[in-house]
Amino acid sequence: MTNYILKDENAVYYECGFSCDNEIFMQFGSDRFFITDGRYSIEAKEKLRGIKIVESRDVIKKAAELLTEHKIKKLHYDPNDFTVAEFEKLKASKYTYFEPAPAFSQKKRIIKSNREIKLIKEAVRLGAEAFDQFAGHLRRYGLNQNEKRLVYECAAKMQNYGDFALSFEPIVAINENAAKPHALPTDTEVKIGSLILVDAGLKYERYCSDRTRVAEYSNSLTFDKKKQRFLSSKRQKVYDTVRKAQEKAIKAAKPGVKACDIDRAAREVIEKAGYGKYFVHSTGHGVGLDIHELPVISAKSETIIEENMIFTVEPGIYLPGEFGVRIEDMVRMAPTRAVVL
Amino acid sequence: MTNYILKDENAVYYECGFSCDNEIFMQFGSDRFFITDGRYSIEAKEKLRGIKIVESRDVIKKAAELLTEHKIKKLHYDPNDFTVAEFEKLKASKYTYFEPAPAFSQKKRIIKSNREIKLIKEAVRLGAEAFDQFAGHLRRYGLNQNEKRLVYECAAKMQNYGDFALSFEPIVAINENAAKPHALPTDTEVKIGSLILVDAGLKYERYCSDRTRVAEYSNSLTFDKKKQRFLSSKRQKVYDTVRKAQEKAIKAAKPGVKACDIDRAAREVIEKAGYGKYFVHSTGHGVGLDIHELPVISAKSETIIEENMIFTVEPGIYLPGEFGVRIEDMVRMAPTRAVVL
Question: What is the pTM for the complete model shown?
Fold first, then answer.
């Protein structure tokens, strides 16, 4: 059995169903340890069974001591999970060889369980509802509101007055700001006919949702991706191209194909329409406890797609100084096809 | 001149007045480099003068290449600023010895400039206004609202509908939940006479504010720390003790004293009142671009206090299963005394 150490909050939560903001989880054979400080140790003892709770002000120093005490010879760790300073402290353990295991937890989490699928579906359903709520806000109050205000309002809808956490800080980008895939909110205001890109999600029982929609502003604005009509033929062409690229990518997703084949399906549509160089990112990413998980759906990803992987399909076209369009949904890999959540 | 590398967003912002969420800053002698990806390089070029902007999809690999190209022999880095995986990549540079420099940037930032003091003062002023707004919300609508909802409402007041970012996720804790210094919000509801602890702050032009108040719920609730009256004599005694501890600590702060002397001043008051073992954290921390900066105001901190350091003074008493009280303000070290911001 592999001995391993985890520090990342979601990685630890996945192992034992509890985590806080200062902890180490270790497993040696059948022994499992949860090290945390006095702020959280009582709650950890209440919630965890079959795991030794160890209290310490310095959880990494304590981990090194436990490794020495148990004479552990080999331990897997994720080099992305520890800073150089933390790892130096950990290496004080006397007998341990530390075996680098990049993405150790994320690899374990790539196939979702039935329970996880249920939670993610609920996150997506609630996220879609929040998009509808936000569309309602835009129709009634959005005119002349700026991006900063709209990010705030969008986050409010996602959180539903405190019921849910955000998956990430929402993006609300108008016209040329939508041409930046990671736009920071500005004072740019919504006008009739503004193109608005919204990328947002929420967490339900710690599992993330993620969705992007684009719409042109009017008092009948909706985020239904099938109902978008644009005044300019260029916007309409770009939008329709992105939508077709998303459809093709979703159709290309089958158990057994490589992730890069899904990316290629989207990229081909966009290239054929003459916008190849304006699709500047990869087609998708896994979603679960982290907003970005495995598999990576990119031109270089050799990952074989399997049943019950959950990932985004989100092609985009970004025309600098003009506007950008991205359409993003999450899909679950079913036995024969990708099901949009 | 020291050669150094920085990755932390606030550390980089401090050097050059711009940062994004994927960047490396390096200085060799008089050469300065800002490495970022295509999403941010245009903005970086617009905003930065006298700094070479280098675009790369892999900013750390590119940093290693530049180190090799410039035959850099020695480079200071903060081992808290890089993961093991990142540092491995950086070490691909051929000629460089990496000198660990823990808290490299935070040490540079410990004394605040006049400009920084102005911005922090404004952050504190706006934060105090938001506390008043939140008190208004509580008086009008707070009865029977739960902690989760109140965290949301408190965050809304701090953000002022999108004008400001949060310094951190606010804490709103009722009765026994206030006995946990880092309480996570629950479904516990506010009732008449509930003790409510609120710890919150906002960022103004990237500089943080931080404040904690405790009040007993009524329809005349205020967060004025001088006006708190409690129904039970135990609550009143604990509150008055914490307030006196804060006053003594603020009086003890003078240029030339050690940080631990400030901590001791607070701790003595609480120990004398018989609550010594319920003051489970240190007395304060520096605040600036990061919410937690130097100096550390703790029992062990030998840091000599100097003019224009800015830090919190926040003693607390936490009675498990009952309630907790913490009172927190930010102070600036003036030539002869600490001035509450």
Answer: 0.91
